[in-house]
Known about the structure:
The complex is a heterodimer of chains A (290) and B (335). With 290 residues, chain A is mostly helical. Helix content of chain A is 73%, strand content 1%. In chain A, strands 1-2 form a two-stranded antiparallel sheet. In chain A, α2 (54-61) packs across α13 (259-284), α3 runs antiparallel to α10 and α10 packs antiparallel against α13. Chain B has a 6-stranded mixed β-sheet, sandwiched between helices. In chain B, strands 13-17-14-15-16 form a 5-stranded antiparallel β-sheet, with no helix packed on it. A 4-stranded antiparallel β-sheet of chain B has the order 2-1-4-5, with helices on one face.
Amino acid sequence: MATRQTQLLARALMSPAVILLFIWMIVPLALTIYFSTLHYSLLDPGSESFVGLENFEYFLTDPAFLASLQNTLVLVGSVLLLTIGLGIPLAILLDQPVIGRNFIRLMVIAPFFVMPTVSALVWKNLLMHPVSGLFAWIATSLGLTPIDWFTDAPLLAVIFIVAWQWLPFATLILLTALQSLDEEQKEAAEMDGASALSRFIYLTVPHLARPITVVILIETIFLLTVFAEIFVTTGGGPGLQTTNIAFLVYSQALIQFDVGTASAGGLVAVVIANIVAFFLVRIVGRNLEA
Amino acid sequence: MGRITLEGVQKSFGPVHIIKGVDLDIPDGAFVVFVGPSGCGKTTLLRLIAGLEDVSGGRILIDGNNVVDVPPAKRGLSMVFQSYALYPHMSVRGNIAFGLKMAGLPKAEINQKVEAAAATLNLTPYLDRKPRELSGGQRQRVAIGRAIVREPKAFLFDEPLSNLDAALRVQMRLEVTRLQKQLGTTAIYVTHDQVEAMTMADKIVVLNAGRIEQYGSPIELYQRPANLFVAGFIGSPKMNFIVGEEASRRGATTIGVRPEHIAIVEDGGEGWRGKVLIAEHLGSDTFLYVDAGALGTLTVRCVGEKRLSAGDAVTLRPEPNRIYRFDDSGHSIFA
């Protein structure tokens, strides 16, 4: 029914949504680009002046930039490793027929529904607190010295919190994939004399290649912009140890009140996300074809 | 060697008895077909022999050894699944070689055996393709290749041709039979299609509701069916059953006549009179559905093109020595 008339009608009907979405996206982007070329301090409003690419120079030569770039990549990489590395065995366990399977599945998925701010607060005050936290209590009952997570291993602590939040997502995707693995294939492998381990290596892992790719792509998009967990727990510190790009942009704008440099940083973050996405699609995107 | 003996094999899923005590002796090298209607337990019986299900009672002997507690891989059998169950991410070569690789054979030997199996099945040009790049018949052959390469004591086929189109099914039927004869390996073949059973089997096991109704060669089953069930199941179109006076006149509760043993006569003599309801013209045969009054609707098979159509009056005459007689319990009465 692709006559000219239906095409015109389709375009006319779609245009409000497309135009709205376009404005929604383009106005902030255009303003960010505009602000990134201004000397614009919130402490001295009304005195904006055009400075060209100076803001980019400040942002990129700031020692905090390289540190936060490194933190961002370490955070994304570690959380991906943890969620997939733990997600596969967890999904296999959840795939087994046990009593109360539905309830257990619900419990496993629960962390995904807790908002980041809340889960970060729970981890900070109830679990990782060096005096009153659960981990500290376990350590002291075993006669060990409690770890002061946010002082001694702040980035690791943030990684654990974020991984805990994203583990259910990975588990859920991998579990649904496991359930689609053909039962007769497993039986054929059993007849072929494959042990449980061989069946895992030769059947399950190749079958999971595609869902793992999906998990990596989706998680990466969100993990590049982790903010609430850092804001609530460490505030980017101590020093710059837990500052990622998103948090650095925030601190430029609302701690140093330098909107111009923050805008430049925001644009740099966009470029970095695109670079990561480019390599990601090249490396793992092949799995999605065919 | 591949002699398989079942002794009182039973299987229940919870309170449901699927297999109610099966005794069977399959000699080495035989091609045995399990046939029966849906839900008769034929696939379950095959899976019990394969070891994919545990028996609830009885013994399964392979070459005299009880294998009830032996895991599937150690029973020395190989199976061709209905869905083929090929490993989708492995090439044809990888699929066929998988069992040998798991058995830890040296690479050179694996390669040689895979090439040989591929040559037997005309799969050599496709060895490096993935299963999804193959047609249905080729996938079927890969599944068979995976089974033969391990040189098992017996092949187990679980309705392997049911996903193929009619023409290909006939061709694969021949290929499977030829291959089995050539290798001389025992084969157990499950199907619900009695034509497949009749054409392929050395011996047929007719199953119904978890029991063996009859075990014998195709012609034995056709000529001397043990009971009503076998008589109705073997043969196409189905045997006509007649009860009442016509049956008691011959000393039976039910009599049966196959459609091909009824002749249409025009000599005005003795016979069953009726009226054609439907005539199906197949060219080589004509199937007539005839309303024969008190005798019910009878199916008649005439060779060639009979110029009869709905509404025509006909006289039917059964071949007197081809009338099967059954007692009240449904068992055959042989004179």
